[in-house]
């Protein structure tokens, strides 16, 4: 029977997932994504290849699972920010933009923006890795409009989908040039808030 690390099976699995994530990040810093296979990831994580298949049946499934796990802290952070209803909606949007772009600097989450990324990573809807963030932002925009802080948006879902393009461009820019993080965050905040601002009467 394989040796169990941690105090429980669940803790053991969490530790293995952390090892797989670290191994993937290390490999991504050394070589092109397409040249990495599950054997490389398993070896770097200190796992037998057959053991890795207990966690994911193939490379694509492994990367999707790692992306979902890597995105969880950002999802939780955005939910907490969105719930700070004593703060202006614009301030919360500003903080969310920075938090999401910071999260997307992670090499694993950057795989969502890679040309030719699989549909499992780029799909929209409830199964998308960061879908909960999209929902939180939609609700925040509705709240801001109801409070008179934002203009009335006819189709909130479409608006957020279009604004997601700004965030994607920002994440891609940060992936290419990490030193551009602050400037990219500032530009994204400016564009997004300008698009939501209530017109002066």
UniProtKB/TrEMBL annotation:
DNA-binding annotation, residue ranges on this chain: 37-56
All residue ranges annotated as the HTH tetR-type domain in the record: 14-74
Alphabetized InterPro entries for the sequence: Homeodomain-like_sf, HTH-type_TetR-like_transc_reg, HTH_TetR, Tet_transcr_reg_TetR-rel_C_sf
Gene3D superfamilies xref list: Tetracycline Repressor, domain 2
Entry-linked Pfam families: TetR_N
GO MF term set: DNA-binding transcription factor activity; transcription cis-regulatory region binding
Coiled-coil ranges (or none): none
Protein name: TetR/AcrR family transcriptional regulator
Organism of origin: Saccharopolyspora terrae
């Amino acid at each position: 029977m394989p040796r169990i690390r941690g105090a429980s099976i669940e803790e053991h699995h969490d530790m293995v997932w952390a090892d797989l994530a670290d191994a993937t990040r290390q490999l991504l810093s050394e070589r092109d994504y397409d040249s990495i296979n599950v054997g490389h990831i398993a070896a770097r994580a200190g796992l037998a290849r057959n053991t890795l298949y207990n966690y994911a049946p193939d490379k694509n499934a492994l990367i999707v699972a790692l992306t979902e796990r890597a995105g969880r802290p950002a999802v939780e952070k955005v939910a907490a920010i969105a719930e700070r209803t004593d703060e202006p909606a614009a301030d919360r949007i500003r903080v969310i933009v920075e938090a999401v772009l910071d999260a997307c600097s992670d090499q694993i989450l950057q795989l969502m923006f890679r040309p030719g990324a699989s549909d499992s990573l780029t799909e929209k809807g409830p199964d998308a890795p960061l879908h909960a963030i999209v929902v939180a932002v939609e609700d925040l925009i509705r709240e801001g409009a109801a409070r008179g802080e934002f203009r009335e948006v006819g189709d909130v879902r479409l608006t957020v989908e279009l604004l997601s393009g700004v965030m994607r461009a920002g994440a891609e820019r940060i992936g290419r040039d990490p030193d551009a993080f602050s400037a990219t965050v500032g530009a994204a905040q400016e564009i997004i808030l300008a698009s939501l601002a209530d017109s002066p009467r």
